[in-house]
Amino acid sequence: MRFSAIPLVALGLGLTACGSQSDDTPAPTASATGAAAPAPAPLPTEIPIQFQGRWGLNANDCSGDPAAAKGLLTIDASTLRFYESTGTLDEVTSSTEGRLRGNYSFTGEGMEWQRDEILDLRNGGKVLVRREFGEGASPEAFDYTKCE
Q: Which residue intervals make up region (Disordered) (predicted)?
C-alpha cells in the first residue's frame, strides 16, 4: 500500500490551523535566556549631574568676565541659563548615557517660549552639543566646551 505525501501534509496543516490562537493577544516577549524583558528605566526628573556646570561657546565665555561671556551656558538640575534667557526643564522626554532630550519653558527679554532641546556629551564629557527644535529654533547645533 502506497501513501501519498500530499494528504499527510494537508492533514498536518489542518491540525496546525485548529490549534492556533483565535484572539489577537500578542505572545509575551522573552530575552535570549527565556526571562521576560526588563521594564525600561524611568526617565530622570532633573538634568543629570554630568550635564551640569558652566559651558562656553568660546574661551572668553569661561573667563569670568560677565561682559565677555555672552555665549556662556550654565546648567543646573532644572535650568539652562544663557546670557539673556533661562530655560526651565518641564519634562525629560528621553535619556541615555550622555544624551538628554527634554521640553523647556524659556523666558528672556520680556518674552516666553517653548523649546525641545537635546544635550549630547562628547569627548569624555568635555564637549556639550546642544540642538533645539520648535518654532524659531536654530537649525544649527551649538558646540560648548566645559569651563575649567
A: 20-42
Q: Which three cell numbers stand for residue 76?
A: 543646573
Return the C-alpha cell found at 116: 525641545
Nearest to 147 by CA among 73, 41, 44: 73
Query: Is residue 19 over pLDDT 80?
Result: no
| Interatomic CA distance for residues 135 and 36, integer angstroms | 41
User: Each residue of 65-74: pLDDT tens digit?
Assistant: 877 889 999 9
Gyration radius from the chain CA atoms: 27
Q: In this structure, how many other beta carbons lie within 10 angstroms of the beta carbon of residue 39?
A: 6
117-130: per-residue pLDDT in tens? 999 999 999 999 99
